[in-house]
Amino acid sequence: MRMQIVICSTLAALLVTACGAGGPEAIPATPVAATAAATASPQATATGAPQATATTAAATATAVAQQPLAALPTTLELELYADGFDNPLHLTGAGDGSGRLFVVEKAGRIRIIRDGGVVAQPFLDITDRVSARANEQGLLSVAFHPRFADTGLVYVNYTNRADDTVISRFRATGDTADPASETILLQFAQPFANHNGGLIKFGPDGYLYIGTGDGGSGGDPRGFGQRLDTLLGKMLRIDVDGGDPYAIPPDNLQRDSAVLPEIWAYGLRNPWRFSFDRATGDLYIADVGQNRIEEIHFTPAGSSAGINYGWNILEGSSCFRAGCDTSGLELPIAEYDHSVGCSVTGGYVYRGSMYEAVAGTYIFADFCSGRIWALHGSGPVRDMIELLNSGKNISSFGEDDAGELYLTSMYEGRVYRLVLQ
């Protein structure tokens, strides 16, 4: 039986002030009850990474404001949908009309939820090849081929026993994907254990998008975010139907022979969840900050390749080091500092049918504080409206095939459905 947990939050303004505590990475080891400062990442603080002390590229980009109560619902309810998971990190439907939800567990399993109940047998178990030793390693996401009902092809992103990132493909029949059917599409080394990014997702163009972190440590010591000869710190894009094991989309960046052809965009630190608006095709990216600022980027559908999201020139809209040149950099549409949270978890634009009042609203959260926000407005800077302080370590949001929203609570091992009123 499902249990409903109702937690209400009045829409209120949040004051955002700079704080110097080192921020955690995408998957901190300490539950949400601890403060942001107490969950500081050992990788980030050990390097003595510089604080962002420079000028602000767009002073108005930190947009946390109160809106009229009529603008959005005043309450958000979390309905417990399923539990018993081992560190769930991702959730998605298969797009095949089955109504199933697939939950990715960090250790290397994918579980199925059918009609609110968890199927006993895992959909996929690759714990024998997944390394989940570090906080940000493990089986990180799953993506189903756009014609999954016909092809039976499923794709995953995981950290292997050599600590490399692996993007691979499996074949599935019914409720089971065959672990022996693996075909590795892409594999690349990670110099440190953190900042693996980890999400893969098919875009409206049918290509597979892969969000990668900058390789880890703190402050991007090797400058991978801005380098085009590495797959790290990027949004990659490949055509899984056009080659063996994949082809390169003709409109990827590909400036010259020194640019790796898989690169579509760059300048990311650790994109912890991105999504496409299923109605418009617009892309939203949540990028985890260093010591000060968490950020949300917006890329309209149809944008050309080569967008530079700024890291490590910028952290949010502020210079990461003094005196930076912001020309040509894509500024975030919203950001918040570490007095509010310390590790952003990207969400989705709501396109379900149950809550018309919030249709077209982007909903996201912070892993450390458990706060859940909605972005309001349509300009280059959006207002953040707090819907709920959930008290949960929200590791991911997910959509079912109908566009209704769910979230995974990592340490609880639970999946909640979002109920908006």
List keywords for this structure.
mainly beta, five-stranded antiparallel sheet, globular, 2% helix, disordered N terminus
Structure write-up:
- The chain has 421 residues and is an all-beta fold.
- It has helices at residues 42-46, 148-151; strands spanning 3-8, 75-83, 88-93, 101-105, 109-114, 117-118, 124-125, 139-144, 153-159, 165-173, 176-177, 183-188, 200-202, 208-211, 234-238, 263-266, 271-276, 283-287, 293-299, 307-308, 314-315, 318-319, 334-337, 344-349, 362-366, 371-376, 383-389, 394-399, 405-409, 414-420.
- A 5-stranded antiparallel sheet has the order 1-2-30-29-28, with no helix packed on it. Strands 3, 4, 5, 6 and 7 form a 5-stranded antiparallel sheet that branches.
- Strand 9 (153-159) and strand 10 form a beta hairpin.
- The longest helix is centred in the N-terminal third of the chain and has 5 residues, at 42-46.
- The chain is globular and about 55 Å long.
Radius of gyration: 20 Å
Strand order of the largest sheet: 1-2-30-29-28
How many helices? 2
What is the mean predicted local confidence, pLDDT?
A: 86
- Tell the overall outline: globular
Distance between the termini: 22 Å
Would you count the extended β strands for me? 30
Percentage of residues in DSSP E strands:
35-45%
Write the layout of secondary structure elements.
Elements: E1 3-8, H1 42-46, E2 75-83, E3 88-93, E4 101-105, E5 109-114, E6 117-118, E7 124-125, E8 139-144, H2 148-151, E9 153-159, E10 165-173, E11 176-177, E12 183-188, E13 200-202, E14 208-211, E15 234-238, E16 263-266, E17 271-276, E18 283-287, E19 293-299, E20 307-308, E21 314-315, E22 318-319, E23 334-337, E24 344-349, E25 362-366, E26 371-376, E27 383-389, E28 394-399, E29 405-409, E30 414-420
Parallel strand pairs: 16-20
Antiparallel strand pairs: 1-2, 2-30, 3-4, 4-5, 5-6, 5-7, 8-9, 9-10, 10-11, 10-12, 13-14, 14-15, 15-16, 17-18, 18-19, 19-23, 21-22, 24-25, 25-26, 26-27, 28-29, 29-30
